[in-house]
Amino acid sequence: MKKIPQDIIGDIAVLKFPRRTLWITKKLKARKFLKQHKNVTTVLEKTNGFSGILRTQKTKYLAGIKTKETTYIENNCRFKFNIDETYFSPRLSNERKITAEEISKLTKKKDMRILVMFAGVGPYPIILAKKLKKEKKQVEVYSNELNKKAYHYMRDNITRNKLSDYIIQVPGDAKKLPTKIKDKMDVIFMPRPNIEDTFLKTALKMSKKGATIFYHGFGTKEEVLEEVREACGEKIGKISIRKAGDIAVEKYRWFVRFKVK
C-alpha cells in the first residue's frame, strides 16, 4: 500500500491507483487499507484531480462508510466539508501556519483590515483569526469565496471555531469585491487557484497605500515575478518570493509578498 499515493483527510482516505488496476484489486486493497488504518472509516479512489475555477475534484467510493463529507483537524481548528464539492489540501497545513504567523506580525494596530480571497471552506481565514483572537488583536478579517457550497461550509466552520466575531464573509466573484467592500485593506492574502487570471488588479483596488499583498503564483520563479510586475507596475514596493509547495513534477506554487506603494 505504501506505493499507492494517498491523502488522509479526517477519517477519509483518498487513494490513487495506476490506470490499468482492476476494479476488484482496488476494492480489495481499499478494504485492507481500512483494516490497517483504524482512524480511517471511508476509502475513496481519486479519479480526477482538482480543476476549474471552483477547484473541485472527482472521487469514487471503494470501501467503508459511504460518504464524502469529513471533519478535519488542523492547527487547533476544525473543518467540515465535502471533499468532492470543495477544495481542501491537507498538504498545505504548514503553509497555512506560516502564513498566519507572517500576517500576525503585521497586525500591530487595532483598526487593521485583512482580506482573504479564494477562502474555500475557510482554512486560511479561520487559522489566522484564531491566532489573532488568542493574541487579543482586534482586527477585521474579510473572507471571500465563489463556490457556494464551500461558502456554506465556511460559514459553519467559522461558527464551529467560535470566530463569528472576527470573520466577515463576502460571497461571490472576487472581481466584484471593490463594489461590495467600501473599506481599503491593510493586508490581502491570495491563495489563488492555478488559473490564468491573477486577480492582482482587483487586489490593488482593495489595498491601502503601504498595504501588504501575499500572492500565490504558479510556474517558474521568473514567470511568477514577471506576472506580478506586469499586473502591478509601479505600485510594487519591496518584494520577496519563496516556494510554497509542489503541484506536480518540477512544478511549484510560489508565495510572493510585496508592499503597495
Task: Note the run of SSEs as H and E.
Answer: EEHEEEEHEHEHEHEHEHEE
Mean pLDDT: 93
- The neighbouring-strand order within the major sheet is 9-8-7-10-11-13-12
How many domains?
2
CATH class categorisation of the largest domain:
Alpha Beta
Summarize the biggest pleated sheet.
7 strands, mixed
CATH architecture of the largest domain: 3-Layer(aba) Sandwich
What is the CATH T-level topology of the largest domain?
A: Rossmann fold
Q: Helix coverage percent of residues?
A: 25-40%
Residue runs with pLDDT of under 50 for 5 or more positions: none
Shape: globular
Strand content: 35-45%
How many runs of DSSP E, i.e. beta strands? 13
Report how far apart the termini are: 52 Å
Q: Which homologous superfamily in CATH is the superfamily of the largest domain?
A: Vaccinia Virus protein VP39
Report what the structure shows.
This protein has 261 residues and is of the alpha/beta class. The protein folds into 2 domains: 6-67, Met-10+ protein-like domains (GMP Synthetase, Chain A, domain 3, 2-Layer Sandwich); 91-260, 3-Layer(aba) Sandwich (Rossmann fold), CATH 3.40.50. The chain has 7 helices and 13 strands. The strands form 3 sheets. A 7-stranded mixed beta sheet has the order 9-8-7-10-11-13-12. Strands 1-2-3-4 form a 4-stranded mixed beta sheet. Strands 5-6 form a two-stranded antiparallel sheet. The protein is globular and about 60 Å long. 36% of the residues are buried.
